[in-house]
Model the fold of this input.
Amino acid sequence: MSKRSGAEQYDAIVVGGGPSGSSTAFELQRGGARVLVLDRATFPRSKACAEYLSPQASRRLNAMGALTAVESAGAAHLAGMIVRAPNGAALRGDFVASHGYSAFRNRGLALRRTVLDPILLNCARSAGADVREGAQVTDVLRDATGRVTGVRLLPSAGEVELIRAPLVIGADGLRSVIARRLGLARISRIWPRRIALVAHFENFGGMGDWGEMHVERDVGYVGLATVEDGLTNVAMVVPAAAGRAVSADRTAFFERWLRDRPQLAPRVAGARRVTPVLATGPFASHARRAWAPGAALVGDAADFFDPFTGEGIYSALRGGELLGRHALECLGAATAREADASLRAYDRARRAEFRGKWIVEKAINAAVSFAPAINYFARALESRKDMADLLVGVTGDFVPAAEVLRPGYLLNLFLQPTRPPAPGA
Done:
């Protein structure tokens, strides 16, 4: 088998053409870098995702020139979130509220990934990035010092293709090849591991202007949101222990789970599933750090957590923006040490940007995993809409996480009187 190895035509290779890769490539190309985006898929491609973009995600969409296209594609607008606990308590938080914070747009958006991802990838193309679809990266290349110098592609027509660049960016998702090859991938063995099942339905009953989360005792939760053309995204997250039943027949498991929930059964009775049931997980994947000499990670390749708060797309877009700026400094560095310092600074900036949100996400996921906790907190926030609005604003990426981590907020949350539970709760 022969090998083809080209000279360095590019300053950066971005592995992955989803939101994080497109955002990173756009930022780099706009800064004058020569960028190649590689993705194993051919777009449009389906993706197991809740397909929710927080109100603040519109700022990045606008900066990339994508917002008009996303809205023209018919993206649904969401006014806030409703969370229903196992005991029937339901809190509602609105994005437009009296707390004084406002997002770039007043509403969140929801659009199928088969529509959204090509829009974002075309933004990178329009900025000047080269994009190759159907190109599967299998490994990174290194020099004698161990520094990453490029990527190896899956053999095509009997040839192994090697592409070299001073910087390789892993934007290749939950099971990132780049993170694994760099030895940075890590799976949590402590945090509850879950898998997700996602499909779209026509005529799902009772959908309004709010996204919904229905938490069930010990069996996971399901998120509902209208996307374009009146479709409803149904994203179910269940314990990884259900994996055997899911593997046996994921469609039967998915539809039976919905029919077995008394509050959902009437709503799904007249609905028609119009897409296959997709699966992803287990979750709780993290990287020890988001860089190595000559390489960086972004989006789910760097951190993927249980998706209850639905912030994956925003984090991917914002992470690409952050990385792009530091990556340009890396490419302009005079020495390898200075280049590494720029990537190290990116990792610090990323942690500073998301640290508060990670704490909130972990706290929410802990509550979701323990029915008495989510029952209590849902009842408390059901009676204090101002506090519910703040929490939903944090998950909407425009209220600082510090607002719900303040001692005063936490004290009110834990000491808030709640009405007695419903019979049988």
